[in-house]
Write a structure and sequence with these properties.
Blueprint lengths: L16 E4 L4 H10 L3 E4 L9 H11 L3 E4 L6 H6 L1 H22 L2 E7 L24 H13 L5 E6 L16 H9 L4 E5 L3 E2 L4 H14 L3 E4 L6 E2 H12 L4 E5 L19 H7 L6 H9 L15 E3 L6
Parallel strand pairs: 1-2, 1-3, 3-4, 4-5, 5-8, 6-10, 6-11
Antiparallel strand pairs: 7-9
Length: 318
């Protein structure tokens, strides 16, 4: 079983691939890796909640595959606006799945570990066939989106977790967990981070590579595509600061110390056995994701300036 190898052989993919949500983290990585095979579709180009527009656009573009990376990922905001969340995460998926079914195109829907969580005693990674049980409106919407995607006969549902990637603009607060931690470290002597939520936050280029590998196999169904291993948000922040040479202290807290409108799963680690069997490949360990995100190590250790404290938990990022 290979865990470190060259990126997916794009030549093994047939036809053109429409990437919906092409301006987001995962969409950007897929477009970059696909090169000339990619058909980027951004929010400015298509309102995916408008059924007529979706059908017309898919019919005009005629891609062989449609990958839907677009999503409502504001977990707490979904508790206040479940209708808006449903429109993007469910209704839009219904439109895309129908359009793909009508033309015989393949449909790939990106989902989340947040479809799990209701099993509060869980201590082993979830497999694809395990019963879902979302804890919040966002998770409910993503589970319904999975069901909508499965109405397309030729479909893939990809569950992933806590996506993060670097960008040419540098770290941006709110873009993803690692970016936010790096921004806070410039103005805080200490950050408090939830330590009792186990999952596997994953590096976007690794996940994009895994998705394309699955496409080359012709597999159909649901797959978990995340970096190997498991961690907590506290451990992730600690690893980030250690590797980046950041002096800001990371203090572990419990979820109860950081109340939020939406409850997060205490355990949502995803089992990747099915992905490995289909592709004969495993994504790198989550620590390797942090290393690749940072790129070359810094030449000096920054000193955190004195400031007020900050407490942080995480939401999924597209």
């Amino acid at each position: 079983m290979c865990t470190v190898s060259p990126s997916c052989d794009i030549a093994a993919l047939s036809g053109r691939i429409a990437v919906v949500g092409a301006a987001g983290q995962l969409g950007t990585a897929l477009v970059q890796q696909l090169g000339a095979r990619a058909i980027p579709v951004t929010r400015a180009m298509l309102d995916i909640t408008a059924g007529d527009a979706v059908r017309a656009t898919i019919a005009r573009l005629r891609p062989d595959v449609v990958i839907n990376c677009a999503a409502w990922t504001a977990v707490d905001a979904a508790e206040r606006d479940s209708a808006g969340c449903h429109a993007v995460n469910v209704t839009a998926v219904e439109h895309l799945a129908t359009a793909c079914s009508d033309h015989g195109f393949r449909f790939v829907q990106i989902s989340t570990d947040y479809v799990f969580g209701a099993d509060r005693t869980r201590a082993r990674p979830y497999r694809e066939a395990d019963a879902p049980g979302p804890l919040n409106a966002y998770g409910v919407s993503k589970l319904a989106g999975e069901e909508a995607a499965r109405t397309c006969p030729d479909h893939l549902v990809i569950r992933t977790c806590g996506l993060y990637a670097s960008s040419p603009e540098g770290p941006i607060r709110g873009r993803n967990f690692l970016d936010t931690m790096r921004v806070l470290a410039t103005t805080r002597p200490e950050v408090r981070v939830v330590a009792d939520q186990a999952c596997t936050p994953s590096y976007v280029p690794h996940v994009a590579d895994g998705i394309l590998r699955l496409l080359t196999t012709g597999a159909v169904g649901t797959f978990h595509v995340v970096n190997e291993g498991q961690t907590s948000w506290y451990e992730l922040a600690s690893e980030l600061f250690r590797r980046a040479g950041i002096a800001t202290r990371v203090v572990p807290i419990e979820s109860s110390d950081y109340p939020s409108p939406a409850e997060r799963p205490r355990y949502s680690v995803l089992d990747t056995t099915a992905f490995a069997a289909a592709t004969r490949f495993r994504l790198p360990d989550w620590r390797a994701g942090v290393t690749d995100y940072l790129g070359e190590p810094p030449t000096a250790t920054p000193v955190a300036p004195p400031h007020s404290l900050e407490t942080f938990s995480c939401s999924p990022s597209s």
